[in-house]
Structures are given as structure tokens and as C-alpha cells.
Amino acid sequence: MTVWLPDWLRHYRQEWLAGDVSAGVLVALLLVPQGLAYALVAGLPPQVGLYASLLPLLLYALLGRSHAQSVGPMAVTSLLVAASLAKLGLGSAGDYLLAAIWLALLSGAMLLLFGLLRLGFLADVLSEPVLAGFTAASALLIVLSQLGPLAGFRATGASLPAIVDNLWLHAGNYSQPALLLGLPALLLLWWARSGLPRLLHAWRLHGLLLAILSRGLPMLVLAGSMLLVAWLGWQGQLPQVGRIPAGLPAISLPALPASGLAALVLPAFFIALINYVQSLSVAQLLAIPRRETVDPDRELLALGACNLGAGLCGGFPVTGGLTRSIVNAEAGANTQLASLITMAMIAALLAWGSGLLASLPLSVLAATIMAAVAPQVRLQPLLQAWRADRSDAIAFAVTFLLVLWLGVDSGIIAGVVISLAAWLMKSSRPHMAELGLLPGGSHFRNVQRYPQCQTLPGVLILRIDESLYFGNARHVRDALLARLAAERQVHTLLLVMSAVNRVDVTALAMLQRLDETLAERGIRLQLAEVKGPVWDVMLGAGLAERFTGRVHLSTYAGWQALTPAPDFHI
Amino acid sequence: MTVWLPDWLRHYRQEWLAGDVSAGVLVALLLVPQGLAYALVAGLPPQVGLYASLLPLLLYALLGRSHAQSVGPMAVTSLLVAASLAKLGLGSAGDYLLAAIWLALLSGAMLLLFGLLRLGFLADVLSEPVLAGFTAASALLIVLSQLGPLAGFRATGASLPAIVDNLWLHAGNYSQPALLLGLPALLLLWWARSGLPRLLHAWRLHGLLLAILSRGLPMLVLAGSMLLVAWLGWQGQLPQVGRIPAGLPAISLPALPASGLAALVLPAFFIALINYVQSLSVAQLLAIPRRETVDPDRELLALGACNLGAGLCGGFPVTGGLTRSIVNAEAGANTQLASLITMAMIAALLAWGSGLLASLPLSVLAATIMAAVAPQVRLQPLLQAWRADRSDAIAFAVTFLLVLWLGVDSGIIAGVVISLAAWLMKSSRPHMAELGLLPGGSHFRNVQRYPQCQTLPGVLILRIDESLYFGNARHVRDALLARLAAERQVHTLLLVMSAVNRVDVTALAMLQRLDETLAERGIRLQLAEVKGPVWDVMLGAGLAERFTGRVHLSTYAGWQALTPAPDFHI
Questions:
Q1: What is the pLDDT of residues B221-273, one digit of tens each?
Q2: Nearest Cα to B84, choosing from B280, B235, B257?
Q3: Which residues contact B565 (CB under 8 A, 6 or more apart)?
């Protein structure tokens, strides 16, 4: 009997074990505070974040291809869940939890479906500047939203105005014990980002101990704060995690949510999209040093299964986390066995240790979120984009501001629209260059960049630097006619089509009408360097016959055909 | 004192007068039934269609540039108004009318704003197949929706299911007199499209009489039906237009609608978009034989003013009508004076003759709509698109079906999304060609189309036939890496960038990472024929320095540099 096993397990080598074990332990130390904290960001009970770290880790280990991808709750996803559910106006906490679980199930089902339909290219609807703007603004929202819990009151609001409102309203209700624990924890964690590695290095610590001290610090801070609460007798004087149901979650299909499924479809789609983009980027980043390529459709399937699994064990949507996955890889994870060890540790905590977490102060959890997320508020991409391409910089800035102002859910829609609109606007006003022959050869160049180029009297050679389609057909025709109206002595227009990669039906109709208009005015329209695919489309539309005899293989062939024969009478 | 006057008026020539007068009269004969009928399509009292034909004609004559454009109520616009207002659930007929007037005011204000912002390219978000599918489906919906009024009961529904429901529900309530007048009128008008011109030609009629008989036939049919109603004593036995308020409408800013303005903003935007695309196409069609070009921004301003005017005199949204404008041009309109004459005739009818219209049977009006709109149910573009470009054909079919099923308002959104998505999907999977040197020259061609091409051992020359951007950067990288993995002996990859018209920040980051990955694997990445604008962006991003010395002016220069020096030892 042959059992289906993932590749890494079938060919497992003993020497991989040490790395996998240490990485698995380390990621568990990181995942426990993250899971608890991100569940709170999503407005859910803290244990939901741990539930969402069980089946997904197992399913990715079985189905995923990335060796160190660590799937689980993530900050931006949690904020998206909070923003989506806030709009539904769900009455009870139970309804809210059910809706969050169904968001995981629906987005999982969508991802699976997209994977089966091989829609991996969906990740490409977000341009990098838009994604960077989205991530930076989301991170800033998360940091600001945690100011409330840091001071001992509830976080609400998923947009800047709502968060500021909330802070304004509750600022008077701050809890001294919460701040006295939270603020030092925040400062310690913040300092640890740069100071701790140097200190540990100076102390000549290395190996696993160094890793546990530097990477496990959030866990150590949480443990320390619980000891302090007990020692100072502050139990019950500040917001704490409280009693967590003991034991592992049951695996079951939950009851339908009060809001109905239809209201969750669109939010689930955007959560699926963001989670997929996030997880695919992590997988690709991890694949580079190992010289592997990532199959986007396979990632869709694996992530879809993970989210279905998260929902079935009562968790909320999950994705591959960048920080966790890098920690996993750096700590020596060789295979997905590391993730299975992480899962086993979290299961053990839930089964036997959940009582330990009850006294955990929420303000210290808030401090771990703020310290983890703050480095993602990066504005450097804005500067980089500004130097390369203004419109990309504008896309970043607009997405950033819209996410802050409207919240992550509207922001992501705006981001997709801005990405596409910016690109289409650029293609709607194509660059056109007048060409001339470089002396002593058969090459043609832009006469404005190479003034030494020769031209033929009465012949205008124009290169259109864009595919022709409905978005620019009208503009190209108007620009050509305006150009010809300005240069009245032209009798032949030679269009160089080397940069026209595709034409659509709208552009074909434009070319035909342009030819008719020019013929009426006594101007010949000729084409050069028409690409194979473009010519095929012209053949299909019956336009090719019309141009027979007027299409040149190269611009130089056109030049030679259009050069007047030498007059032998002189 | 110099008064501002439009060009055509300042340079008016006496010989233009005869054509302008006959065209103005003829268009009035066409516009009266159309105005009444399209108001009914929009669910409004019939006189609203005449009100919408007053100020807009004057304003276009003053501000517009097209000599024969005839602005007024149009079929598709009316259907859009009906579909948009149906969703608002407005209680009274007065609220419904107010909302329709505000749709005209809002879409007028938007068009003016777009014109001031020079957003004329907005017309280009709809590809021709999508627009054709939209128009054909809308026309079919209008024809079907008029089956009810033809049989003497009310038309409701703006989508196929709603219209079929309505017919099913009321089929028993048909009115015999309505059908007895409507059906013969429909058959007569339908026959007149092909039979009448031949007949009149055989009778050797020509000039104005022929034009009035053929173009004024709808008006004659309406007049005849009113005489029949009086003669047969059917007054009150079938649905009729009823009493129309006597006199011209007052010019005033109406009260705010019951729905609030916010609910009207999105419908007004789509109405503005469709009206603008429609009116711009008409203007461009009219400009071709006169060798004029159309300024899209100017058309935006003029159409915006027309719609504000329509709203201020109690009308609904208007646009340039294709049939009317062609009739206007063919009947000899030389200037916009023709439209002023049309307006004067409609004003006269409203002022002194509105009582004449009261007995007009609605079933005959329905017949004029069906006869006018049915020719627009054209499916030929589907066949043409199928032959040229399958995805354009699919875009047509999907838009057609969605408009039928969901109605015009959702259909237009779907149309825009389909237009853009189809184009982006094509650009997300760029064509790449391996190039070789054509023997005896310096030109390179696709080795698959030209098998005689030579290649260099260890050198892979690839031409990327698409601009590089976020939508395809990932795919291009994966495709290149897969290609290189398959051909293991390659030491140099030469990318020919002649067809790469633009790169964005996402693609720049991809190029940089690709270069790093290839360097690790011992493969050199070189570029050839990088375009000026692309190189500028690479310079701005600091990527140009990285590639210094590895960019060739032409593919042939790269070929020469990569050809191994001859080994003199042998």
C-alpha cells in the first residue's frame, strides 16, 4: 500500500532534524503572542488566534511547496476582518465570531476555486507601490488602534477618524496598572530590535540560546508581565486575557452566520486576495536563496485549504507571515516538519496550559503588536517610486491616505482601481517618435534624439510606442491627423509597428477609418515591421487584404521602396 | 460692444439658410414623437421629453462644435434613467420626476467638471465590442419593454426577467383598440424602412417632399392615429397621452429630490458616461466627411451645459442622437441654426398646440419607439469580433447577456470592468520570441517563424513583446527562469527591449531581482534596444548604473559583442 506523502517527508534526511526542531520551537514562541494579539485586533476572543494556528499549519505542511512558509494569523488580515465585520452591525459576540469563522471558510473556498481555475495571476492586480502604500497605512492603523488597549481601554475603529474618535472618547478612562506594564514592555521590545542583538553579541552568546533570547523576547516579556501582576497583586485591576476554554477546539462546520452568507462574499474575496498576495510574496522571497520557483496556482490551493482548515477549527482567516517565515528559515527550518512541531507546541498549550494565559495583561499584548507592526510603517517606497515614476508615487500616496481615511476594506478596492487606472492612463496617451535613417546603415532612430538622422521628403515615418486598443485608438488617430495637418507636404505616412504588440477590434476599426480618411486626402498609409500576432488579427478581420502591398518587412525596406528612383535624364 | 457669438453665426452665409430651415423642420417632425416616447420609456410624463428638447438645443448651438449634432432625449439614456430610478423605490410620481430632473442636473455638472479637468479620454474606457453589446442589448430591452404599451398596459422593468414577469402578469389585460391601432402602425413603420424609399423613388418624388414623407412618417402615423381615434369614437377606450400642461416650462432650479442627492451620484455618473460616449461618436461620425477633428473636451463642456439646461427646464438627461443627427445632416443642415429652428417649432407646439397631443394613443407611440430602436439590435459586431479576436467577441457576448439579465445600469458597470479586464489579461501573459540573425544582414527575427536564422551557442536572445508592469512582471520572471532552467548550457541572456514601451516600479524591482538571481547562477543578463523613456525610468530608479556596459544600442551590436573572438591558434 502506497500512502500519499508530501515530497519533503518521503525524502526526509536525518541531518535536517536539528534545524527543524529548533525552528519549530522558536516560531511557536513567536506565534503564541502573535496569535493572541491579532485575534484581539480582529475583535475576537484571544484563543481564536491559537485555534487558527492548528489545522492551517498541518495543511500547509501537507499541500504547500515552500519549505519555511509559516501560516497563521496576520496583522493586516486581522484588521481587514475587523473592518469588514464592523460594517455588518452584528449584535452579539457569538454572531461576530461566527461571521469571522465564515470569512475564513468562504475565503478558503474562493482560494481553492481560484487555484482549480488556475487564476494565479490574480496576485498581479496590485502594483507594488499600491501594495506598499496599503501595507504601510494598515500598519499605522494597527499601531494607533493599539494605543487604546495599551492604556487599558477597548480598541475600536478601523479607520483613522474612527480610531481618533475612540481615543478622544475614552482617554479619561485609562488604567494606571495597564500603562505601568504596557509602556515599559513597549520600550523594551522596541529597544530590543536594535540594541539586543548587539548586546547578546557583546556577551558572546550564540546558537540556540541567542535565538531564543532575541526571537523569544515577546514571549519572555509576556511571561514576565504575568509574574509581575501576581507579585504586585494587580490581578483584576487591569484588562487581562481572562479564562480561555481549556482543551483543543472541536473540528466542525459552524452554524450559518446571522448576517447571511451573501454579506460576507465581498469581504471574503478581498481577504482572500490580500492573504494570497501576502503569502505568495513570502513564498517567493523564501524560494530565491534556494533557487526554486513558486507555482502560484499551487500556493492558491494550499492557502485555500489552510483557510478552510482555520474555519473548521473555529479560527479566522490566515496567511503566510513574513516575519515568522523568515524567523523559521533563519532558525534552520529545512522542511515543513518545523511547522508541525510549532503546531504540536500550540496544541499542547491549549490542551494543558490554557489556564496560564488568563492573567496575561492586554496592555502588554498591545505592546507586542505595536513593536511587531511598527517597522512596517515604511515610507521609503514612496521616495523610491518618486525618483523612478511619478504616477507610481502618486498611487502609493493616494492608497496610503485612502486606507487611513476610509479603512482597509475600502482602501484595498481603491488600491486595485488606482493600480489599473494609472497603468491604463499611461497607455492611453502613447509616445510616438518620428524616425530617420542613421547615416551609413539600415537602422532608424528618433530624429529628436539623433538629429543626424536622414528623412525622405514627403514621407513621415512614425513609430507608435504602444499596443493599440480601445483605450488609445481615438487618441492615436487624432494625434496622427493633427500631425499630418501640421505638415502639409506629406504624401506618405509610414507607421512603424515594431512596438505595437497587440491590436483589438476597436483599434482595427480605427486603422481602417484612418486609411479611408487619409486616402480621401491623397495620403498613402503604409506599415512596417508588423508583428506576427498583430498581422494574424488583421488577417482575421479582413483588414490584411486592404493593406496588401503596403506592408514592409522592415523600416529600411519601406525606406528603399519609398526612395524616388534616380532620374537618369539629369 | 462686441458680443460673444459662436463661429457659425459670426460667419453665417445666406446660401446656408435653405438647408438649415428644411433640416430644422424635418428634425422637429422626428423629435416630437421621439421626445414623447422616450419620456414614457423613462417612466415620465410625455411632455418631459419635449421640455428636454428646448434649452439643450439652444445650448449646443451656442457651445457645441459639431454642425449637425442634434441633442435631445435618447432611447438608451431613457432606459438608464428608468433602471436607476426603479431601484430608489420612490413613492410618488412627483418624487420620481424630481429625481429624473436631478439626474440631468448632476450628470450635466459632472460633464462640465470633466470638461474643465480635460478628462475627454473618459470616452475610451469602453471598448467598441462592449459598447456594441451594450447598445444591442439595451435596444432589445427597449423593444421588449414596449410590447406592454403596444398592447395597452403599462411598461415596467428594466431587465429581461422583470419585463417577462410584467408581460406574463398583464397579458390578460390587453386592450383591443390599442392593439388595433398599434400593430398596423408598427407594421407600416417597419415596412417604411425599406419599402417606402423605393416606392417614393418609383413615384419620382424628390427634394423636401420626399424627405418629409420618408422622415416625417412617424409624425404622420401619429397624426393619422389621432384622427382614427376621433373618427371611430375610441376616445377614452385605450391608453392615451392625456392632458399636457399648456405653455412652455418655467426655468428654475427644482426642489431637492426625496431620495437625497447622494443616491443619484453613481447613476448620474453612468448616464453622463454613456451620454458622452454616444454624443462623441455622433460628433466624430459627422466630422469625417467635412475633414474636421473633434475636441473631446469641448464636447464634454457642451454636453454638460445641455444637460444642466435640460434639468433647469424640467427635462431629463439628453445626448446627441445618431439617427436624428444623420437626418439633420442629410436634410442639409449647414450650421446649428437648424437646431434653433427645431427648438422654435417644439416651443410653438408646447405654447399653442399641446392640446392636440392629448388624444394620442400610447400604443402608436410604442410602435414608433419599437420601429426606431429595433435596427439597433445588431449582432453582426459579434461575428466580426469573433473573426478578429476571440476575447473581444466574448466581451461583446458577456456584456450583451449581462445587460439583458441585470439591466442597463449594472450592465454598463460590467461592460467597463470586462473591457479593462480583457485587455489586462492579455497583457499579463506577454508573447516572447527567441530571436536569431537573418543570414546576410543585421536583422533579427523569431526563430520559429524564420528557421533559417542563426543563433550563438550559449546565448539566448529573447524579445519581450509587451510593456513590463505589475500585471506581468511576476509572470515574465517565472517564464524567463523556466526557459533558462530548460536550456542549461546558456551563459548569457540577451533581452531585446524594442517592444517594451514602458516599465513601472514593480517591473524595475523584478528586473533587479532577476539580475541578482541570474548572477548567482552564473548567467549574464544583457539588454538591447532599450527605449529612451524606459532608460529614463531605469536611470531614475538607479538601476541604470547596475546595467552599465551591458546595454547594447541594437541587437546586432549585442550579437557582435557576444560572438567569441576567432581563436588564432587553430
A1: 888 999 999 899 888 888 888 888 888 898 888 888 877 787 888 889 889 98
A2: B257
A3: none
Q: Grade residue A207 by pLDDT with cuts at 50, 70 and 90.
A: low
The alpha carbon torsion through B466, B472, B475, B479 (nearest 10 deg) reads 10
Long-range contacts of A538-545 (CB under 8 A, 24+ apart): A538/A503, A538/A508, A538/B388, A540/B387, A540/B388, A540/B389, A541/A505, A541/A508, A541/B384, A541/B387, A541/B388, A541/B389, A542/B387, A543/A508, A543/A511, A543/A512
The grid coordinates listed for A108 are: 478558503
DSSP category for residue B3:
P
d(CA A474, CA A479) in angstroms, rounded, equals 9
Which position has the grid cell 481560484? A114
What are the angstrom distances between the C-alpha of A109 and each of A88, A216, A255?
Answer: 21, 34, 17
Q: Is B503 helix (H, G, I), strand (E, B) or coil?
A: strand
Q: Which residues of B12-36 are buried (b: 16+ CB within 10 A; e: fewer)?
A: beeebeebbbbbbbbbbbbbbbbbb
Of A478, A486, A436, A482, the C-alpha closest to A461 is A436
| Interface contact flag, B121 A429, Cβ < 8 Å | yes
DSSP of A21-52, one letter per residue?
Answer: HHHHHHHHHHHHHHHHHHHHHTTS-THHHHHT
- Specify the higher pLDDT residue, A225 or A549: A225
Q: Which domains does chain A have, with CATH numbers?
A: 28-373+382-420 (no CATH), 432-562 (3.30.750.24)
- Residues A274-318: tens digit of each pLDDT: 899 889 888 888 887 777 778 888 999 999 999 999 999 999 999
Residue B537 touches partner A, C-beta closer than 8 Å = yes
CB B40 within 8 A of CB B354: no
Name the 3-class secondary structure at B77.
Answer: helix
Give the minimum alpha-carbon distance from A432 to chain B in angstroms, rounded to a whole number. Answer: 10
Q: ipTM of the predicted structure?
A: 0.71
* pLDDT tier at B566, thresholds 50, 70, 90: low
Rounded Cα distance, A322 and A139, in Å: 14
Which residue type, as a one-letter code, is found at position B56? Answer: P
Q: For residues B118 and A503, which has the higher predicted lDDT (pLDDT)?
A: A503
Beta bridge mates, A444: A437
Chain A contact for B22 (CB, 8 A cutoff)? no
Cβ–Cβ under 8 Å, residues A65 and A295: yes
Q: What is the mean pLDDT of residues B277-298?
A: 82
Per-residue pLDDT tens over the stretch B31-65: 998 899 899 889 999 999 999 999 999 999 999 98
Question: Which residues does chain A have within 8 Å of residue B423's beta carbon, measured at their own beta carbons?
Answer: 469-471, 504
DSSP structural state of residue A359: T
* Whole-number pLDDT of residue A1: 42
- Most confidently modeled of A53-62, A442-451, A534-543, B246-255? A53-62
Chain B touched by A133 (CB under 8 Å)? no
Q: What is the pLDDT of residues B547-559, one digit of tens each?
A: 888 899 889 889 9
| Average pLDDT of the residues in A409-435 | 79
In three-state secondary structure terms, B217 is helix
Between CA A138 and CA A440 the distance in angstroms is 58
- H/E segment holding residue A492: strand A492-496
Q: Is B473 part of the contact surface with chain A (CB cutoff 8 Å)?
A: yes
Residue tagged 469580433 (cell numbers): B385
pLDDT-wise least confident of A246-260, A413-427, A490-504, A508-522: A413-427
Give the up-direction half-sphere exposure of residue B34: CA atoms within 13 A in the CB hemisphere. 30
Cell of B430: 506577454
Which residues in A lie closer than 8 A to residue B463 (C-beta atoms)?
none
